[in-house]
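Continuing the batch. This is chain 6 of the set; chains 1 through 5 are on the previous pages. Same settings as before, nothing changed between runs. Recording input and output for traceability.
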Amino acid sequence: EIMPSLVGSEMCIETGSRPIRDTALGEGGQDYFTAIGKSNFFPADDAQVVALTSLQDTPIIIHRRYYDLFTNACRRQGFIPNIICQNDNIASSLSWAASGIGVAIAPYTSAIQNSDPTLVMKRIDSPEIVSKAHLIWNRSATLTPEQKAFVHLFD
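Output for chain 6:
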């Protein structure tokens, strides 16, 4: 799936989320997954964290990139998630969540693009699901000095 994105270009960055510096990411800047939905899908408390197991019977909306990661984490917790929608766009996930049909699962750095004040965002308490970024380039392409320097930032 990644190699077609390199056609006609030398380099791309595939991310589970967009790179961003945010104090909410905590020490080390590790991105984490969130559950975003209407308040009726969450316990009536002020907790900013939701247990993965509490999403067991919740209708889930998820980007296809995170499907395996999320479902495998759920299976390790002893349940199969109720995925009602799998899509190719985080904005679509947020839109479906805003319509009230379920809870979107997304990395924090993607979820913060939500502008709907009626949606609640909670960190999913599971160290098994984290978002990562990968730098990919076509090794047969000639990279400019600037591109080479950028690649070495990831060493």
